[in-house]
Amino acid sequence: MEFQVMSDQVTDCETKLKRAEDLIGGLGGEYTRWSQTAKELGDKYYRLTGDVLIASGIVAYLGPFTTPFRVQQIKEWVQLCSEKAMICSSDFQLRDVLGDPVLIRSWNIAGLPADAFSIDNGIIITNARRWPLMIDPQDQANKWIKNMEKENNISIIRLTERDYVRILENAIQFGQPVLLENVEEKLDAILEPVLLKQTFKHAGALCIKLGDTVVEYNNNFRLYITTKLRNPHYLPEIAVRVTLLNFMITPSGLEDQLLGIVVAKERPDLESEKNALIVQSATNKKCV
């Protein structure tokens, strides 16, 4: 009886030992990758201060400008940081510092071009404190915002509509996104409290005043503004209230869009499979 018990214990130990060896052998291949990841994280931490400083400058100042100007300005900032002995990335990319790969994939699915200029615009929108005003003569930002916020019941308004203030009040109260499209070089004065986020506490609730009406303010509320003007001139009192963004189409962005159109027409099965893989990959990364 005791012999049988001892034999069972030996067999159990041998099984556990074999499983442990298999596990260690399987994880051994990950050692190199983990070591490389740890080294990369250490390098990022070392450059963190300078990279965040440059990223903050891009979000605050470079939105209205074109790609060549942005690239030149970033090079000058990198050089200035080096002269001041502030460590930063020599090949600085905004998406590497503030970009979320899962979020960027969802933007691309919603219609945002995959070129660096458009991705940087999306990152600026999500990180800026002020509501975005997008210079969008080709309507690519307009379509992207509509697709991205479609599930959140986005409201689309224009300043020429009579009831746009009522729609805006409802969206603020229920925390829904609003797209104010086709604006000119001047904005309605009634929008000023919304642009400046002039909220206050009233009877224990967070509120905002629109004209003569006090509306309860939901922090989930989001406002997007677009204009079709190619070269608008906004006065300083408007420019300081919004985040100006240049969404005029770029050659690389146009190439990406044309390629997508050709694939969708010629091989719709490949386009569907690609989108399904992107969604699945994004879901897997969220789970991890």
Automatic annotation (TrEMBL):
GO biological process, one term: microtubule-based movement
GO MF annotation list: dynein intermediate chain binding; dynein light intermediate chain binding
Any single Gene Ontology cellular-component annotation: dynein complex
Domain Dynein heavy chain ATP-binding dynein motor region residues, every copy: 105-286
Residues spanning the membrane: none
InterPro entries: AAA_9, DHC, Dynein_HC_stalk, P-loop_NTPase
Listed Gene3D superfamilies: 1.20.920.20, P-loop containing nucleotide triphosphate hydrolases
Domain Dynein heavy chain coiled coil stalk span(s) in chain numbering: 16-74
The organism's place on the tree of life at top rank: Eukaryota
Protein name: Dynein heavy chain
Organism lineage: Eukaryota, Metazoa, Ecdysozoa, Arthropoda, Hexapoda
